[in-house]
């Protein structure tokens, strides 16, 4: 390839790296984003990143004491039921311990854990078995190719 083609490829690579570092959410520009963690009613968690200038501050009531730093991002925790932020360092439990223990011991939870038993013979075991057979076949062919099976 000619020198001009190398120069063009290098310049495209440099432009791509600069665009990534300036416009994408990465290690170098975390301060531009707000990390909104929302706990939903179905016990799932959704994490969304918003640019600071695009974030709708009127959508939820944010207490300045509830904002924290998580891996370099300004982070806010909310729930899908509440219209305000949650304090992440509030360790006071809102649930009774006895109610929690009875929920864990309930029939539905125990059935859910029983249904998650791993299979004894799954796809990984089949692939390992096929790999061992292929290895033995290759070793047999190499043995015969090198003259191990003939007497002459």
Could you characterize what this model shows?
- With 152 residues, this protein is α+β, with helices and mostly antiparallel strands.
- The protein is built from four helices and five strands.
- It folds into two domains: 84 residues, no CATH class; 49 residues.
- Strand 1 and strand 2 form a beta hairpin.
- Helix content is 39%, strand content 17%.
- The radius of gyration is 29 Å and the shape is flat.
- The two termini are 54 Å apart.
What does this entry show, briefly?
This protein is an alpha+beta fold and 152 residues long. The protein has 4 helices and 5 strands, in the order H-E-E-E-E-E-H-H-H. The protein has 2 domains: 84 residues, no CATH class; 49 residues.
Task: Give the key terms.
about 40% helix; alpha+beta; five-stranded mixed sheet; 2 domains; about 150 residues
Unreliable spans: none
Strand content: 15-25%
Alpha-carbon distance between the two ends: 54 Å
Sum up the overall morphology in one term: flat
